[in-house]
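User: Hi! I'm working on a homework problem where we have to compare a predicted structure to a textbook description. Could you give me the structure for the chain below?
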Amino acid sequence: MVVRDPVAVRLPISESWRRSRDAGVDAGVQAAPLVYERDVVADARDVHPLQPHLPMLESLLRRVADETEHLMVITDADGHVLWTQGPPAARRAADAIGLTEGFRWAEDAVGTNGIGTAIAAGRPEYVYAAEHVAHVLHRWSCAGAPIIDPDSARVVGCIDVSATVAALHPATVALVAAAARLAESRLENEMLVRDERLRERLLPHLRRLGGGGLLVTATGRVLAAGAAGLRGLRLAVPEPGGTVALPDGRVAVAEPLGEAFLLRSA
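Assistant: Happy to help. Predicted structure tokens:
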């Protein structure tokens, strides 16, 4: 892949170009690769944490997609497209490059783009026209924002708005970023409800330790602690029977309790 820097390349784009080059992306690639057949896409949708919040996201972005010939795209954490929405003309143009359900839009698959670059950078990004590595994408512009799972602190998906225009309106970036934050707030509410249920069910195990243990989620978040000041911290993800280093220097053994762990002093 040969990339010639224009006079003023934005730093996020130059960083993305380097990642794309290191991944061996061919600027002549004609479309994203297909990774999920239709039945697999349906299964992936059913188990994805954003599935319950799809109506909210569609409602928030529908006006942009329907009225401005833009396409709304929602992917999983690996850039696999799970949902799209937009007018027929936009969908036909997107189909030609694989910007539709079941195709993969990670940076290492198609180079710099609003989905893969936002996921790789962990922040909202926009990519205009020739900022794309792939020549076939130079007639496209896109804005994407990753969605961070508050439980694991990892990217769980990406919201993107794309169109065959030279540049998106600046408000598009703010819109997808706001949609991502709203999705994260809903995921956090779900997490807090799960946390409270776990505490109600598992606190007796912690009390039997007499104040020396911790209740920790499978993702390493402290749900309850015998000692003050530890609740809300994030520890290394426990393994059943393994040890975890605590902030005060102690080492604790992880005892599995279904959806959580009881950490007791080793």
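For your comparison, note the following. The chain has a mean pLDDT of 91. The longest strand covers residues 155-163. Good luck with the assignment!
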